[in-house]
Each structure stands twice: as structure tokens, then as C-alpha cells.
Amino acid sequence: FESVASEKVLTLSYQAKVVWQDTAQRIEYAMREGGEFFQIRSFASKMAANAARLAGVLHLFSEKDSLEIDH
């Protein structure tokens, strides 16, 4: 069956990607033994990806014409 809505692919701007990667590294570091997220590793391991998804949803509602997430 055919999709009624056209597919859109969102991308991160260079700066947004840098911030996302830094955040992912900080989360990973906090998941080490004795770290802040050690007890919730299974949840914390998904935090960066979930933040990116949420940023995408918010971006679509606020920047309808842009396919690049820049903040």
C-alpha cells in the first residue's frame, strides 16, 4: 500500500551532532561501575537516542519547513 504522507528524514546540524555526541559520552561515562547511572544502565543506555527522537518530534512541530535539527 502507498503512504499518503511523504517521508521526511531529519538530520542533525554539525553543532547539534557535537552536543549529542558529548551528551552520549557523558551518559556512557556515568554508567560505569560506581557512576551516577550505574544502577539504571538499561535505561541510561537509551537516553541519548531518546533525546534525539524527542528533539526530532519537537523540531517538526516548531520548524515545519526545516529538516535539520540545529539546537
Structure overview:
The chain has 71 residues and is mainly alpha-helical. It contains three helices and two strands, in the order βαααβ. The protein has a two-stranded parallel sheet with strand order 1-2. It is elongated, with a radius of gyration of 15 Å.
Features:
71 residues; mainly alpha; two-stranded parallel sheet; elongated
The strand line-up of the biggest sheet is 1-2
Tally of alpha and pi helices: 3
The number of strands is 2
The span between the termini is 36 Å
**Cα radius of gyration in angstroms:** 15 Å
- Strand content is 5-15%
Order of helices and strands: EHHHE
Characterize the overall form: elongated
- What class do helices, strands and sheet pairing give? mainly alpha
**Mean pLDDT rating:** 91
Major sheet summary line? 2 strands, parallel
Helix content: 40-55%
Sequence stretches where pLDDT stays below 50 over 5 or more residues: none
Question: Quick recap of the structure?
Answer:
The chain has three helices and two strands; from the N terminus they run βαααβ.
Secondary-structure map with pairings?
Layout lengths: L10 E2 L1 H17 L10 H4 L2 H16 L5 E2 L2
Parallel strand pairs: 1-2
